[in-house]
């Protein structure tokens, strides 16, 4: 039954989900915007983050260490993949890049399935963040509020990196014209390595903080990858603010539509994406140079 408390609760659910989607999408969009590589392994990185966090939590019992250790692990995996595989495909046709990243995603998923099986793993909510919070007009799970806050803080860190550091300046210049950046004498391959690692770490971090909300399974990355691509299309390819805006819009669409009929939540998401492509093909805050 749809009533005012349920609607407000779904609105907060949409904010939390949207912030997580924005965090994942920001990694995907800066990778594509800077490197020109459509990373189909990005969903697998999200899934890998959840499992890496689970391993660290099982070994230490600390959720904080799980977040730190899992994020670093996925970041290192991203660096390794860029250095060993992706770097050899920068000059290749886009379809080759799509196929190789798709293959990498399958390998990661099957390795996780080999190690943990096909069943989900459980990452418990930190005791300090368990229970519910009284917001004055409804009771709401404390951890979901924490997820929203954590994701916003992480997006703030990414914003500082992209807009307040020399690396961010180079990344944004590379989104506009990577050839010119190379001509200026900047080691673009070193920048590409860091960008891919940061993008992978963002996805892994999102996977860990989302694990207590939805238990990770080996196949969870496939669903999140589709939603992430929709976010990037709505917000605009290569645009960090677009990823944030697209994530929040997509989260609210999925959540509010689910309150009415869950079967149509993803349908509505694709309807909105189609309208954006028809009316503004580069996305709401898209970068025309890369789109």
From TrEMBL:
Sorted UniProt keywords: Amino-acid transport, Cell membrane, Membrane, Transmembrane, Transmembrane helix, Transport
Transmembrane parts of this sequence: 12-33, 40-57, 63-86, 98-123, 143-162, 188-209, 229-251, 263-280
A single GO cellular-component term on record: plasma membrane
Annotated InterPro entries: ABC_transp_permease, BCAA_transport_permease
Superkingdom per UniProt: Bacteria
Main location: membrane
Places the protein is found: Cell membrane
Membrane-related topology note: Multi-pass membrane protein
An annotated GO BP: amino acid transport
UniProt-recorded Gene Ontology molecular function terms: transmembrane transporter activity
Entry keyword Membrane: yes
Entry's family note: Belongs to the binding-protein-dependent transport system permease family. LivHM subfamily.
Protein name: ABC transporter amide-urea permease
Organism of origin: Acidisphaera rubrifaciens HS-AP3
